[in-house]
Amino acid sequence: MAGATFLDPLHRMDVFYYSHDPLWGKSKVYKDKNCFMDYYVNFQVHLIGIDASRTRLEIVSIDPKVPGKSSFNWHTFGFSQGLEPVKATVDEELELLHYIQSQVTENKERGS
User: What value does the mean pLDDT take over residues 91-112?
Assistant: First the structure.
C-alpha cells in the first residue's frame, strides 16, 4: 500500500496509521438518512523538517470509504454491504490529530 513511499529518504520520519479493520469511526461529514455513516480510512502522517525548531505535519488519507449499497452475496448466501470510495475530509484528519494529541498527553501523564 504505502510501502514504496517509506523507502524514499524524504519519508523516513513518517508514521503510517494502519489497522486491519480501518473503521475510523463515525464520519463528521457523510450522512445517510440523517445518521452519520461509518468512515473507513488509513492515514499517513508525514513529518517534514523545516529547520531546527519547526516541523511541518501533513496528513494523507488513504482509501477513504463509507458503507455503500447492499447486495446479495452467493458465497455466504446472504446480503453484504460494500464500501464506496469517498473524498477525504479535513474533519476526519483533524480527528486524527486530536487522537494523536490525546495519546501523547496520556503517555506524558504516565511518564512513558
Answer: 81
CA angle 37, 43, 48 (to 5 degrees): 145
Range of the domain at 54: 3-110
Measured CA to CA, the distance from residue 24 to residue 86 in angstroms comes to 14
The residue ranges of DSSP E strands in 7-109, in sequence order, are 15-17, 23-32, 35-51, 54-73, 78-85
Cβ atoms 26, 73 nearer than 8 A: no
> How many domains in the chain?
1
pLDDT tens per residue, range 55-88: 888 888 889 999 987 666 666 676 667 889 999 8
Residue pair 50/56 in contact (Cβ under 8 Å)? The answer is yes
- Global pTM exceeds 0.85: no
DSSP three-state, residue 2: coil
